[in-house]
Structure formats: structure tokens, C-alpha cells
Specification:
The complex is a heterodimer of chains A (113) and B (114). Chain A is an all-beta fold and 113 residues long. Chain A has strands at 3-6, 11-14, 19-21, 23-26, 31-38, 44-50, 56-59, 62-65, 75-77, 86-94, 102-103, 107-112. In chain A, a hairpin with a 5-residue loop joins β5 and β6. Classes of the chains: A mainly beta (113), B mainly beta (114).
């Protein structure tokens, strides 16, 4: 079945550091890929998405590129801020299979001033 | 344009009881999905409703049921509550049921089963 694997957290960085959160997936069809962010006590917010291979999603300085050859969708940001502290979820929705959305377990990011 | 809202915010029930959670979709959205998020985990898909019909279901028992109303608001009902049902329940709406469509999440209902 479909699955998403994220790097375990917490990821702890100083402000202005470079961020990478790894995400790999398995899917039977041609999935759309997503990154969501969850701030404490809140629901999930879509951060960015990509719907086909080699697409790059970007938003608020975050980027992720859909790599079909490595089945990956790693999240990057060049310079993190304290306000980026949150839990980040990688997810897929498989157009060729059951389409049921599948989420990773989440990666907590803590940014220190 | 109002976002997705859920009620109540928090709820405490005892084992064996029944609970109903409510969700108002974002204006214009005809699809709503429900998720269960246990502490420290990612959301697990419960089911999806599209134009008042169940459109897909995850690996949850039949005591988890739902409804979608003509105005596209939705309910999640859980019967015979178990301790493991304690979780954050998230509702998400979208314009369509297409796999690549963006889902907009509500803030969730925190259910505690004692």
C-alpha cells in the first residue's frame, strides 16, 4: 500500500540556518505530494504541493521538488525563523490507487533565536 | 470567505458512550474528509463525503459513521467509545474529490475518552 516516511525529529536549528526535512514515499500510481504545517493547538495548513514529477512547490521561502526517480519530496528552506517552529507533515494522494490521503508521522522543527 | 470550522473544541466522554462531532466546510466546497490524529502521529484518514455520499473509507470500524448535509456541512459519529478513540479529530474540505486537490483543515476537536 501507499506509505510516507519522514525523518524523525525533533530537528533543532538556530535562526537563519538551512533546513532540510527528508520525505520519501511509496505509491502504486502517480501521486500528488504535499507538505502541511501544524502549529501548536491548531489544525493542518497546506504549505506547498506538487502534482507531477519534477514539479517544484514553493511557499513562504519553503521549497520541495517532486523526484520520481528517488521517490522523494524533501522540504527545504534557506533561512529559518523562530516562527517556523511547528510540526511538518509530508503527505501523498495517489491518483492511480485508492486515492486515500496518506500522511507521514510528522517532523517537529524547533528554531532557537 | 469563512474557513473550515469544527465544534466542539474539546470533549470528554466515558468508555461506551456515543459522540457527534460537527464540521462546517469552507464556502463552495462540496467534499469533506475526516481524520483521526493520535498524539505524536500523522492524521489517519477515516472517510470522505462528496455531495452527501460516502466516497471512500480508511481502515476504521463501522462504529465510525458520518453524514454530509445539503449545505455540505458534516458530522462524524462514533459509537461505543473506546479509550483508544482519544485523539484530535480533523475535518478538511476541498472543492472536489480529486486526488490532487488542496484540502483545507479545520482546527480540530480534541476528544478524550475516560
Amino acid at each position: 500500500g501507499d506509505s510516507v516516511t519522514q525523518m524523525e525529529g525533533p530537528v533543532t536549528l538556530s535562526e537563519e540556518a538551512f533546513l532540510t526535512i527528508n520525505c520519501t514515499y511509496t505509491a502504486t500510481g502517480y501521486p500528488s505530494l504535499f507538505w502541511y504545517v501544524q502549529y501548536p493547538g491548531e489544525g493542518l495548513q497546506l504549505l506547498l504541493k506538487a502534482t507531477k514529477a519534477d514539479d517544484k512547490g514553493s511557499n513562504k521561502g519553503f521549497e520541495a521538488t517532486y523526484r520520481k526517480e528517488t521517490t522523494s519530496f524533501h522540504l527545504e528552506k534557506g533561512s529559518v525563523q523562530v516562527s517556523d517552529s511547528a510540526v511538518y507533515f509530508c503527505a501523498l494522494s495517489d491518483t492511480g490507487g485508492s486515492y486515500i490521503p496518506t500522511f507521514g508521522r510528522g517532523t517537529s522543527l524547533i528554531v532557537h533565536p | 470567505e469563512t474557513g473550515v470550522t469544527q465544534s466542539p473544541t474539546h470533549l470528554i466522554k466515558t468508555r461506551g458512550q456515543q459522540v457527534t462531532l460537527r464540521c462546517s466546510s469552507q464556502s463552495g466546497h462540496n467534499t469533506v474528509s475526516w481524520y483521526q490524529q493520535a498524539l505524536g502521529q500523522g492524521p489517519q484518514f477515516i472517510f470522505q463525503y462528496y455531495r452527501e455520499e460516502e466516497n471512500g473509507r480508511g481502515n476504521f470500524p463501522p462504529r465510525f459513521s458520518g453524514l454530509q448535509f445539503p449545505n455540505y456541512s458534516s458530522e462524524l459519529n462514533v459509537n461505543a467509545l473506546e479509550l483508544d478513540d482519544s485523539a484530535l479529530y480533523l475535518c478538511a474540505s476541498s472543492w472536489t474529490s480529486e486526488a490532487g486537490d488542496t484540502q483545507y483543515f479545520g482546527p480540530g476537536t480534541r476528544l478524550t475518552v475516560l
